[in-house]
Amino acid sequence: MLKVEIAGAQDAAVLTEIQKRAFDADAQRYQRPDNSGPPGYDSIGWQAEMIDKGYYYKLLDHSRIIGGMLVYAAGKEEYNLVRIYIDPGFQNRGYGREAIRRLFSLYPDASKWSLDTPSWAVRNQHLYTQLGFVQTKINRIPDSEDMFYEYERLCEGV
Fold it and tell me: Which of 73, 64, 62, 53 is nearest to 11 (CA)?
């Protein structure tokens, strides 16, 4: 059973290890260059800083940390899912979908959610659209053929 809890400084090292495995596995799956994870994905210091600054959640299967999510308040009743990742050994079990659904319930005041994902991360895009996100923008990455897709989800009752 998935649990979603606020991460603490003591979780930074484990979250870094899991995040590095998750993004490195994606890089290999999609034949991306080494170190193609997002900024700070392999840094304990970055994780600790984000735990301190944002709403950083650890995802647990029973008592074992299997992933994480980072959320920022983007404005009044608007939130940005900055990052979500699941340990490769726990992927394809519905944890990502369940984690995002739980996230929605943690923020009942939300009128809008936003996020972005690389153009090559097809599985992410599929998940996000299944959860009601709609692609709103394409951003080209300078000096690269890659792009980032921005997504938004308007919440019911808005």
Answer: 64
